[in-house]
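Q: Is it fine to ask for two folds in a single conversation?
A: Yes, each is treated on its own. Send the first.
Q: Here.
A: Result:
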Amino acid sequence: MNKERFMIELERLLRGLPADEKEDALNYYREYIEDAGFSDIDDVTDKLGTPKSVARSIIGESVDKYVEEQKESKSVKSGVSSFWRILLYIFAAPFAIPMVIAFAAVSISVGAALLAVVLALLLTGGALVLAGCVLGYSLFWSLTIPQFLMIGGATIFLIALGIIWCIVFYKIGGVMMSGMSRFLRWMFVKKKEEA
């Protein structure tokens, strides 16, 4: 990104800052770019970072500075003003909100899909147990001993298989959900440490 496009994008991203702070920041970066000797075709993002990261840093410093000033004055009006300033910071960062929403949507979707798979497998185990019970009911109509033994064996097999199936997939489901929980915790802890 050349210096002209960089400054246009930075100015757009800083539109929510007070005019004096915005102008100070823009003047600082204009002078920095001129002093660094970038030509019109040089990529300034290699040295400065993206306009989004620079804007995030400037807005963050502005909010921190304002909050410190308001802590010193300790007035009710300043508390309300700090609240609005922080809201401005949140809404002045339009690139962060869609990323957070997308991450939350993907996390919820993956969690729901895992839960659906585990539930389906547990229901399959329940269906095997139910099939064994229904087959066991037919023992009363068996006419011969081999027929009775075959139906009885199939009944016991289906019920045992269903119970084992349920236990195994209950454990696997617990591991999957615990892994998803650890992953989300890792993501949020990581984000807090970076912030």
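Q: Second one now.
A: Result:
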Amino acid sequence: MKRIVLRFQKSASTGLTLVELLVVIAIIGVLVALLLPAAQAAREAARRISCTNNLKQHGLAMNSYVSVHRYFPNAGWSGTNYPNDYSPSAKLLAHSEQEILRNLIDFDLQMGHPGREDLPVELRAAAATPVPMFLCPSDPETPVHETRLASGTMIPVAGTNYAMNQGSGLDGAFHPGFGEADGLCWVGAEVRIRDLRDGTSHTVAFAESLRGPCDTPATDAAIDTQVYRGKGRADTVIAEDADTGGLAAVLPRISSWDGARLSYWLRGSSPTGPVMNGRFTPNNPVPDLVNRSAKITAARSRHPGGVNLGFADGSVRFIEQDVSRSTWHAMWTRAGGEVISDDDGF
């Protein structure tokens, strides 16, 4: 019998050639380029869902508040020359499983404007506490900054991404402490469900917006108008000029920039607090405008293409930033008599 011997010859090559290596790198690069946007989109989708859930929690807490008090939360108590100025957000704490934080707040205490030096330690602790349901995960800004009291003392305060509807701004009500507006929330407001003649499902209760970095950039710096506010004027004249001339019409009248938007969830009528109007459309290139405590505002977000709104019935909708101006303003009035349809981007 013959013996068969099999011989194996080693390949002369023990690795990849340069061409093969370049091909592999190119394939990996293509895969990364394809997968990275998908991964980023998935993360943003999760953040947007989280933001929606935050607004749903606001809606549940708000309707619980209404069932107890018979009216929507306001920006301060009526009947005083110097309202104690607690925000609608602060008044939702007891209705959103935040009893421990709520118990740090004495709602009878007058906080002063911009703030008393003798604020209790407990109140300062509350002011500096970030509340998860107040923070949109798509906003990269840190939640805690410092604010200046009347004496000049700096104290830490936490912000919020959700502000209550003062009104459309078309009525010229830009200061929540100076009388009634056409929305839901101002100092001393006692708006009831029956007052929402446009319907609870058609009236904005809370809108999301972006928190500012609480610094003061130079006037010649590159300004992100989504987070910085222009100081100088906040009245109907400049709002109408912005409607027709956009950013170019507003910039010459901005004397300086303010970075404190939505930086203080505890305060109501303060310009840093969570009460806003819908005078500018979502993500408007024109910045919010502020003059002392008066402000002209827009809902803003880092969600691509639009913003989340919470309505008085507790529902939440994503509104695209190219929504018509008339439809946008109609959402902010409680009894404007406007007709809104799905064809209007609602």
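Q: Anything structural to flag on that second result?
A: Two points. Residues 165 and 205 are 5 Å apart (CA to CA). The first helix runs from residue 18 to 69.
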